[in-house]
Every structure is written in structure tokens, then in C-alpha cells.
Design brief:
This protein is of the alpha/beta class. It contains three helices and seven strands.
Length: 155
């Protein structure tokens, strides 16, 4: 007699995709959350706010936290070594620009010494990182060629 129930050990006629879709969605959520964590800057800064800004390609990034070492392109450095780093960057990228992202509580004199070191190294296209009043990150307008300029000053 023939059995009308499912046969065991026979050929699989179909694949249940529901568990596969569940696994893919869980992996997608994990990747999205991980990507958000990776994008977050490693150095917490309280950037000053600026009213308006435009996009600028960063070649040399100078981060000055309230406490701790200054970072140039993610590497700890000193103000004394900054001029040499600027010269090396200009040798590789003649149209190099720098963005200084200094915590709003960093002394003005420290930022001026960084500007002097960049200028000594020949890097004169300098801008400052800031936050818009709504809390989003703002880039800065490129300065006039051959000048050291501070952009997006809130009156």
C-alpha cells in the first residue's frame, strides 16, 4: 500500500526561505549599527556653532581636544612637528588645505600657535570646523588663495 504522507529521505523539492530572510535582516541591522559606531569621531569635541557653511575637501585634519594630545590626520603630534607635517603634505598635495577642529574651550593662544606652525610649513589654506546651530556638522568655505582665513564666524 502506498502512503499518502511525506516521505523521509527523499529529494528536497523546495527550500524554506523564511529563516534565511530572518538571518539576513539581523545581519543587516548589525552592520547598520556597527557602521554608525565606526563613523562617530574618536575624540569628543564641543565644536563652536556657525550659521552657514559649504563643503570642503579635507587633506590635513588637525583636531585639538580640550585635554590630551593634538591629532593630525588621526596621529598624535606636537605643535613643533606640525610644520614638518605640513611641508610633507604640501609636497604630496600642492593644493593642500587644513581644517582645524578645536574644542571651544581650547585657549586662543594654542590655536594661534597651530596656525603659525601651519603657516611656517607653507600651508596657508586653513579653515575651522564648527557646528551649525541645529547641532549638525558644518564644513567651511575655502579661503582666498594665499591667505590664512577663519570662516563662518558667528557675529
Amino acid at each position: 500500500m502506498a502512503s499518502s504522507g511525506p516521505r523521509r529521505g527523499g529529494i528536497i523539492e523546495g527550500i524554506n526561505v523564511t529563516p534565511l530572510v530572518d538571518i539576513v535582516l539581523v545581519l543587516l541591522i548589525i552592520f547598520i549599527v556597527t557602521a554608525k559606531i565606526v563613523v562617530t569621531p574618536a575624540v569628543p569635541l564641543e565644536l563652536p556653532q556657525a550659521a552657514a557653511a559649504e563643503e570642503l575637501q579635507t587633506v590635513l585634519s588637525v583636531v585639538v581636544p580640550r585635554q590630551g594630545e593634538m591629532l593630525v590626520d588621526g596621529e598624535p603630534t606636537t605643535v613643533e612637528a606640525l610644520a614638518a607635517h605640513a611641508r610633507a603634505t604640501l609636497a604630496e598635495h600642492p593644493d593642500a588645505r587644513a581644517i582645524i577642529s578645536a574644542d571651544q574651550n581650547v585657549p586662543h593662544g594654542q590655536v594661534v600657535s597651530i596656525l603659525d606652525a601651519l603657516s611656517e610649513g607653507g600651508l596657508t589654506h586653513v579653515a575651522f570646523g564648527a557646528l551649525r546651530p541645529d547641532g549638525t556638522t558644518a564644513s567651511v568655505r575655502p579661503p582666498v588663495a594665499g591667505t590664512v582665513a577663519r570662516e563662518d564666524v558667528v557675529p
